[in-house]
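Box S2. Input/output pair 1.
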Amino acid sequence: MPLDFTAIDFETANSSTASACAVGLARVRAGRIVATAGWLIQPPPGHDEFHPFNTRIHGIRAIDVISAPRWSDQLDDLAAFAGADVLVAHNAGFDMSVLKRACDATGDVCPPYRYMCSLQVSRKVYALESYRLPLVAAAAGFGSFTHHDASADALACAQIMIDAARRVGAPDMPALAETLGVKLSRIATAEPVAQVA
């Protein structure tokens, strides 16, 4: 089984993890980045206020997403890009929470993706003072990039995982997880609630 996965990164409009306002994706096949994508998103209603703190981080404003697809409208494109891949993100708990909570907010079914965290992987592979994405990416040989641009962050995350797998000789994602003792987790999706008559 080759080293195949999709790296993903979300930016949010505010402190709610349901407030996805941008996504970046990088597809890896046999240890090589073969495709990238990214787009702005209108955050779900009720989670769509842009807080100045978040805007200072990523530069996205409410006016920037006026013509962007709503969460429900872009979910199929996201799922089509990722397919059945393992998703990878730097601090994956956050990004998987964005995916799950935005689906909860819109009533969409959240795909039960398997995922792995490049932050956990990097702590096992690199000896660094900080494991912030730009520093780990540099250690993995990925040059400077625009941090908090979702597409650039996804690309950096993909490069970290490719480099980590090469360093430890892991041919695929399950082997990488086993070699490093990190979890290959799955997004928990809610079971349908039985209606009581």
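Box S3. Input/output pair 2.
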Amino acid sequence: MNDRLTALKLFARAARVGSFSSAGRELGLSQPSASRLIAALEADVGATLFRRTTRAVTLTDAGATYLTRVEAILTSLEEADHEARGTGELRGVLRVGTSSSFLLREITPRLPKFFSAHPALRVELLSNDRYQDLVTEGIDVAFRFGNLPDSSATARKVIDVPRVLAASPLYLEKHGTPMKPSDLAHHAVIIGPAHESPTFSFRKEGRVASVRVQSRLVVTIIEGAIASAKAGLGIVAVSLQSAKAELESGELIRILADWDFGSLEVNALFVAGRIIKPAARAFTDFLVGELRC
């Protein structure tokens, strides 16, 4: 039974890292031992779970289906072990999906504090400014901004972040500072992932103002949009969190600050219908506490 459990853990990790040897090292197994365990597992299951090449191993269709069931089982076992220990100690692997900006600016600086409380936990950070598929990418918790089109996930609100407009001193000196929303129609606007629509809406003292902006530059990565604004390429629409450091340093200047430009909701997402990993729940609790201070 212990060999079967080890084989399942090895199978799940090899599926994610694409290598028997890498997954085996994490579990303290040699490459030959790892290969033998996977072969024995395939024999027991009665199906080929991996395609082998000289460079990597990839899941077959049967393997992909098997993985979703196996990961759910391993999560249930992890939850049971966690409750039995009763110490709050976290072990195993936590896979976190998020945008590059949120990872660099909010998660990474806080990891030392989280790691010091959970030294036996391994964390894998998957950065992508486009939505990630929690099931196929094996993500335990994903942090997303804005609307949540993924109906197959369970969400927990983390925080609301104001959306802002900002530009470099160089740009404003050369092109002038917009004083009202309609002025934006005459400016170069950088469209980033925080606001992909060409129509911007504002509120102030019960009034609503909308303006269709002209964009010469569209950037799908938040950090790229901010870098473009710092270079003087235009006015960027971002979350306050994403540009906080630049606004505080003066590299970017907030404009139309007396108008409400709306906010972005940050949510933690988990695969619906599955037991949430203790580590995913604890990490979410940790970030909520940190960000709401």
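Caption for Box S3: Residues 61-85 form the longest helix (25 residues). The first strand starts at residue 50 and ends at 52.
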